[in-house]
Amino acid sequence: MGAWVSGVGEGRSVVDAVTGEPICTVDATGLDMGKVARYGRQQGGSALRAMTFHERAAALKETAKQLMAMKENFYELSFKTGTTRADAWPDIEGGFGTVLSYASLVTREFPNDSVLLEGDMEALSKMGRLWAGTS
Asked: Do residues 9 and 29 lie in contact, with contact meaning Cβ atoms separated by under 8 Å?
């Protein structure tokens, strides 16, 4: 894993909802989805956990900016579903804007750390040997 992989079958056509013309084909034949999930958990998960909140926010911000630069491609695809530009706007630009807003929120309100402690510590045992954080 760690690379884009294509299915080995004929795939299934995705058609334009307005014209009925094929847009593309999708295929997962021959893909080991268990291997995909394991890779995500072992490689992607550990890489994500190693990042600080600010690093994660920066990655999300960069992704949203790159997708926003390609917004016309998304509109063209949305037209093939029978929608208008006005109907697609909340899903396309609104979606990217939401990601950008959350990225900014994280850099303002979260520490530049990979751990967030909330509230004070509280003893959970009579002898004070077991503790938990509270919010």
From this structure: yes
State how beta strands 12-15 and 131-133 pair. Answer: unpaired
What pTM did the predictor assign? 0.73
Contact 30, 45 (CB under 8 A): no
pLDDT digits (tens, 9 = 90+) for 48-57: 999 999 999 9
Per DSSP (E only), the strands in the chain are 12-15, 22-26, 121-123, 131-133
Nearest CA to 29 among 14, 11, 15, 13? 11
CA distance 89 to 83: 10
- The rounded Cα 53 to chain-centroid distance in angstroms is 15
